[in-house]
Write a structure and sequence with these properties.
This protein has two domains: about 190 residues, Rossmann fold (3-Layer(aba) Sandwich), CATH 3.40.50.620; about 120 residues, TPP-binding domain (Rossmann fold, 3-Layer(aba) Sandwich), CATH 3.40.50. About 30% of the residues lie in helices and about 25% in strands. It is built from ten helices and 15 strands. Flavin-adenine dinucleotide binds next to helix 7, helix 8 and helix 10.
Length: about 325
């Protein structure tokens, strides 16, 4: 198993230190390699990586990465560099990003762009031969699950105990100058829908989906939100299923919303979810189970599946004016 740390220079020393700490914790006999990504060559992070025990350091440079904040641009740059380095390598590769929301987002984007496995925020990582075992929290921390990757590329974040820096050392350094334009088209396509929608904070109308709504249904909810100028939210299971970003989770462990109208589709109405919706909001619920708790708090309830309502509702609203 090969271990590679990918560290954007713009994320600063803390990202560098925490990523190196995770690398030190996981490194086997082969050690770990470091990829530093930024607009121009920089000697300080190379020295830090070398004294932390990196076997090699590769600098990936692109002028567009000057002060870039956009994770899609970074992901495209890293994906281009990795595609060149990794082609033809058959063993399992674990790519670690600095722990934290930005690293987790970059890990997910890279897994998508490079067809790898996304392990996300890991509580622990273990390597046995070529297999990687990642322990993760799920269901708002109520469960711990172990994911296993047998081959191919995996992307993860791990917060390890503080690392140790050794004596100054020298390390082989390679440089990859990227010239393809950034960002790549795939990333732009993927960014569109959710970013176009207003945030939950301050929204007058929130369209929200739960476990009863699948990917196709969330596509319709997004279209509805766009059509109505509404924000999009979701319950915890919808977030866990990757149907809506965690920043749009409504509830006790998510956001508190106080729109005039909260459209709850495929949401049963648990206390943990309703704790995130103001008592002053009027709830409109769509759920085929007439016994669902959401109907006890809804101003308007429709006991039907979303499949029979959302397409008709979008049709009735017509195209965007
Ligand atoms: C500490 C802690 C914190 C938590 N924090 C949160 C939080 O912040 N937010 C949150 O949401 N949850 C939170 N939860 C989880 C919470 O307990 C519930 O598990 C969750 O709210 C249930 O989400 P749901 O309504 O989407 O799913 P479910 O309860 O499974 O309900 C799904 C609903 O979809 C309906 N349905 C099925 N098919 C269709 C269809 N075709 N069309 C329409 N409806 C359909 C079903 O009838 C059902 O009522 C937390 C739990 C804990 C323990």
């Amino acid at each position: 198993m090969k271990l590679l740390l990918v560290i954007p220079q713009a994320w600063g020393e803390q990202a560098l230190d925490t990523a190196l700490a995770a690398g030190q914790q996981l490194a086997g006999a082969d050690g770990f390699a470091v990829m530093l990504i930024g607009p121009q060559a920089c000697s300080r992070p190379i020295e830090v990586a070398a004294s932390a025990g990196a076997k090699t350091v590769c600098q990936v440079l692109h002028p567009d990465l000057l002060a870039v904040e956009d994770p899609y641009v970074l992901a495209c740059a890293v994906a281009q560099a990795l595609a060149g380095i990794l082609s033809g390598v058959s063993e399992t590769q674990l790519v670690l990003l600095p722990p934290g929301p930005a690293g987790e987002e970059l890990a997910a984007l890279l897994a998508d762009l490079l067809d790898g496995q996304h392990l996300g925020r890991c509580l622990s990582l273990r390597v046995e031969g070529e297999a990687i075992f990642a322990e993760r929290a799920a269901w708002g921390g109520r469960l711990r699950i172990t994911l296993q990757v047998e081959s191919g590329l995996a992307f993860a974040c791990l917060r390890a105990a503080r690392g140790e820096s050794g004596a100054p050392a020298t390390v082989p350094v390679c440089t990859i100058d990227l010239d393809d334009p950034l960002p790549c088209e795939l990333a732009l396509d993927k960014r569109e829908s959710v970013e176009r929608l207003p945030p939950l904070e301050g929204a007058n109308l929130v369209v929200s989906g739960g476990r009863g709504v699948n990917e196709q249904g969330f596509g319709l909810l997004e279209a509805l939100a766009l059509r109505l100028g509404a924000s999009l939210g979701g319950s915890l299971p919808a977030v866990d299923a990757g149907l809506v970003p965690v920043l749009r989770q409504v509830g006790v462990s998510g956001k508190f919303v106080s729109p005039q109208v909260y459209l709850a589709v495929g949401i049963s109405g648990t206390l943990q979810h309703l704790a995130g919706v103001s008592l002053d909001s009027r709830i409109v619920a769509i759920n085929p189970d007439p016994e669902a708790d959401i109907f006890k708090v809804a101003t308007l309830g429709i006991a039907a599946p979303w499949e029979s309502l959302l397409p008709a509702l979008l049709d009735a609203l017509g195209p965007q004016p």
